[in-house]
Q: What sequence folds into this?
């Protein structure tokens, strides 16, 4: 039985979405056991009237919640009784628990994971790897997307190793094509860190490095992983999400501006619904914090039930495929390069 | 009479688009005089049969072309007889010429401008400021979008000052709202450079600094200028363009997948054409290299005639409104901060 913690508070739709997502995952995987943390009465309220396997669900009461506007370090230090910190401590202390999912404050989760949960041996810093859909129906992971705004070339190589193994073992992509986010395709582009990283990535036979990528090609389907410093990786992910959302909003507004457009859109109703689903990041789960010794998955703050269920699935597959152990094996080959 | 150089080679649609764009600008502004550089026979070929005011058009023969894959420094040094370098030298040497437009290699143009054309007094480094449309029908400038992959906080302040004056005087936006591209809204987000830049921007009363911006809000219309280091600014612009293009491509493909969608799309034909025009970056001209002592405008490599004409219009308005002189005045107030 795989035990996964679900932090039920801190998201925009908490605790309802978190609890409902947990029940969905419970139905999907018969060998999963979920521990929900948060205000017990509120969680019980969400469970009322629902059918589920009560033998595989447990509630651990946590009266506090970490808000999104709280300083991460303070929250981690002071909110010991919060749903997130209780989950983090249980993840750290209990050998029978291997993963946790949270839709709460990203900053607090990163700070807590870094200070309370160990890293995979050899890993300099864990990194986020969110997943986006590509236009050919595939997926692309972006690593790092914001856990490390400052990086070294060796860190970028580790991001590549970690995310390559992740895409291979959690998403079943054999020899994923790895690119380095840069301002141009030529190896000498970018600052010194990216130039050096390009060389390091080229010298790492464990990954299928295909060169620099310009950000306009992210959704082309030509790449399975884009390696990035956390600053520009964050810009990459949020710009893609933001542009897609704004365009859909504009389309909708324009459709309602004329009757003939409304009629046309009626005929295309299913297509527009499909596009919306396709671009709905809720369907792609959350960001695994790669490089932690135990699996930590960060769901979007706006996660609904389906997204929480996806996050739990990601945690499940991370553990089933032993990505952390595989990561350690490769990373340690290059440990002497550590800066 | 305002004299503007038009480098007619190096773009995807050169020289036809460049020459046609020049003729459009010539028609639009009666007080403009254009000097076209490049292979004279080819340019004359493009002019054949066209009606235009020959008294305000001159051709300067330049037999060489700088390719997009050439190393910028080498190109600048070795291709002295190229259409770009001839234009650059004329811009430098002749007091009666105030601006130039090119759709050729960005790297070569930046290198040439930095080494051959002077900076506005006090400016540490010139920066690009491309323009994108926002969803409410407005515009947003991104400065820098790639001329400087490494920056200092003081450089970011200068980018803010330069682009604020640009948006005000070239686009008629009074007290433009300036944001700093960062990974979160809070002032303490990002690396040390962005944290310090946030403080400097807050302490500059000449600009209307409204705080950090997350990249997902670029097209919201809430900002007129986004200040960025050239690396993440480049990612921001190219991701926006790339996402919009990929989505439109996907929509088109999906429409053709079913007859009923095709019928629906037929009713919405004008709307889709409008959306396409709206997102067509050709309509928004090029990127002015702000901070040069003479105006240098870089058009997109894929520029068609309308885009070249827009670039010439940008050059015209830069000069008409004396943005460089206004920039110098503000920048010099802060010169003692220079690092």
A:
């Amino acid at each position: 039985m795989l035990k996964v913690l679900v932090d039920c508070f801190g998201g925009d739709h908490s605790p309802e979405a978190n609890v409902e997502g947990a029940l969905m995952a419970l139905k999907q995987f018969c060998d999963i056991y979920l521990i929900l943390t948060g205000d017990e009465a509120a969680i019980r309220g969400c469970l009322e009237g629902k059918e589920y396997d009560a033998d595989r669900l447990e509630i651990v009461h946590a009266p506090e919640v970490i808000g999104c506007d709280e300083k991460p370090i303070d929250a981690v230090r002071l909110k010991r009784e919060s749903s997130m910190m209780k989950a983090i401590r249980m993840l750290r202390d209990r050998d029978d628990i291997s993963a946790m999912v949270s839709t709460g404050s990203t900053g607090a989760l990163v700070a807590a994971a870094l200070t309370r949960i160990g890293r995979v041996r050899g890993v300099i810093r864990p990194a986020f790897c969110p997943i986006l859909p590509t236009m050919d129906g595939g997926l692309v992971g972006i690593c790092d997307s914001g856990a490390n705004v400052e990086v070294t070339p060796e860190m970028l190589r580790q991001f590549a190793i970690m995310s390559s193994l992740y895409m291979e073992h959690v998403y079943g992509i054999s020899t994923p094509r790895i690119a380095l986010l840069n301002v141009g395709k030529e190896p000498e582009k970018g600052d010194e860190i990216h130039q050096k990283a390009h060389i390091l990535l080229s010298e790492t036979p464990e990954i299928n490095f295909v060169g620099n990528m310009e950000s306009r090609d992210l959704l082309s389907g030509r790449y399975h992983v884009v390696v990035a410093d956390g600053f520009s990786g964050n810009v990459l992910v949020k710009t893609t999400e933001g542009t897609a959302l704004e365009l859909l909003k504009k389309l909708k507004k324009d459709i309602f501006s004329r009757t003939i457009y409304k009629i046309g859109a009626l005929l295309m109703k299913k297509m527009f619904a499909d596009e919306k689903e396709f671009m709905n990041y809720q369907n792609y789960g959350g960001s695994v914090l790669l490089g932690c010794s135990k699996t930590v998955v960060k769901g979007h703050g706006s996660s609904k039930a389906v997204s929480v269920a996806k996050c739990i699935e990601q945690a499940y597959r991370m553990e089933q495929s032993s990505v952390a152990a595989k990561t350690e094996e490769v990373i340690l080959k290059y440990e002497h390069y550590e800066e």
About this structure: The first strand of chain B starts at residue 2 and ends at 7.
